[in-house]
Amino acid sequence: MASFTSFEDLEIQKSPLEFSPYEKFMYALNSKESKRQYPKRLQVFLDFMNIRSKSIEENCNVFFNRIKERKDGTSWLENELFKFFTLQNKRVEKGEISTETIKNYFKPIKRFCEMNGISLNWKLISKGIKKGIRYSNDRPPTMDEIKKLIQFPDRRVKPIVLVMISSGIRVSSWNYIKWSDFTPIYENDRLIAAKLKVFNTKTKNYYFSYVTPEAYQSVKEWMDFRASFGEKIGPDSCIIRNLWQIKSQRYGNYLGLAKHPKRLSANGIRVLINDAWKIQGLREKRIPKEGEFNYRKYDVKSVHGFRKFFETECQKVMRELIVSMLMSHDTGIVLHYLRPKEEDILAEYQKAIPLLTVNQEDNTILEKEIKELREKNENNEHLVSSKLQERDDAIKALSDQVMILMNEIQKLKN
Q1: Is the C-alpha dihedral spanning 331, 336, 341, 344 positive or negative?
Q2: What DSSP character marks residue 172?
Q3: What is the per-residue pLDDT for 73?
Q4: φ and ψ at 373, to 5 degrees?
Q5: Under DSSP, is residue 241 helix (H, G, I), strand (E, B) or coil?
Q6: 28, 109 contact by CB (below 8 A)
Q7: How deeply is 235 buried, as exposed, middle or buried, from its count of CB atoms within 10 A (0-12, 13-18, 19+)?
Q8: What beta strand segments (E) does 8-144 contain?
Q9: Maximum Cα–Cα distance for the chain, whole Å?
Q10: Secondary element (H or E) of residue 195
């Protein structure tokens, strides 16, 4: 098994000529996720080529030298790629992998070759790779599934799920969210929502969304729980952290060992939620239909499904542009000409809160409060109308008296 060395650990004070094939490959990978995934996926092809040294770096060097040592290096490599992708196509037909997996193998091989000056006809090579259905065949989770999921014993699951289904954030954004990014919004001393500052890891820009009162309360309870065990919660505190030992295994007394938090990464959150889905008995593998190659093993994506849930529910009651803005979708030129005010966006979001709230008791309370506010507003409107009518009547009476007085004055003049 090849070991994987982080590119950050490599010596970077070198001229381009001194970089190894592996270092050039890693140089072209910008995101942390790409640096984690691409070497592993490239190794699948190197295993096919029977190149198995102690590390992925050595494997890359062997692979590169093997190509350069041959007079027909590029032609030979093209043939090997045809063989490799033919094998992967057969695996798709058997239902062992999806067409997306083949695409994920193709990308790192192409990147490695391009960064090391190996010119191939990539368009020709990609011609024979099986293409899947362009549309997604997964669905958002149901409310019943979400209810069961948040009952998972790990306290972190509930705030993660409630924030994601009520804000539509990507799981990668958890790498940047801190406690000060939540701003509760009150109306007449009642929590109506919380604004959330979010970092879009694709565009590298910040945007904002909202979470429901239920989601904000869940996060606050989690932060208060951590504080009760000695952690100093501040504006820069991460939201999802590692676990800590709550009780002494020897004496059974409570321990305050939460003082040194370590942020749980987006990948860690993904693993945690995957485990929750499985342990709660909510992950059943799909049986592919006859002739269906590009199928997903599960109906619901473990974490991206929450984003799809948000979009599906919001589109039932909100304007499409507002939904796209809260999800940081590319709205094109429309946003340059039509930029809603923040209070209008919040008003639109409030329409979706009942659909994004899991605890229906909270919904009942919220609807009751809204009804009371509306009745109060109606009573106020009646009161205002009554006062305005009294004012109009008083003005009319005064006007009549002035007219009578003027008539009397006119008579005296005559």
Answers
A1: negative
A2: G
A3: 87
A4: -65, -40
A5: strand
A6: no
A7: exposed
A8: none
A9: 127
A10: strand 190-200
Of 126, 105, 108, 107, the C-alpha closest to 25 is 108
Report the distance separating Cα 221 and Cα 337, nearest Å: 41
Q: Which of 199, 210, 162 is nearest to 345 (CA)?
A: 210
Residues with Cβ within 8 Å of residue 197, at least 6 apart in sequence: 177, 181, 183, 206, 208
- pLDDT number for residue 75: 92
- Confidence band of 365 (pLDDT split at 50, 70, 90): low
Q: How buried is residue 392: exposed, middle or buried, by Cβ count under 10 Å (0-12/13-18/19+)?
A: exposed
The Cα 237–Cα 260 span in angstroms is 11
Least confident of 11-15, 18-22, 100-104, 146-150: 11-15
User: Which of 6, 45, 44 is CA-nearest to residue 22?
Assistant: 6
pLDDT top residue among 309 and 101: 309
In angstroms, the Cα distances linking 5 to 20, 35, 41, 206, 313 are 13, 10, 14, 31, 43
* Structure confidence by residue, pLDDT tens digits, 24-46: 999 988 888 888 899 999 999 99
With a cut of 80, say whether residue 386 has pLDDT above it.
no
Tokens of 182: 């939540």
Task: Pinpoint the alpha helices (H) of 132-265.
Answer: 143-149, 157-167, 213-227
* Percentage of residues of the chain with pLDDT beyond 70: 78
| CB distance 118 to 77 below 8 Å | yes
Q: What are 210's strand-pairing partners? A: 195
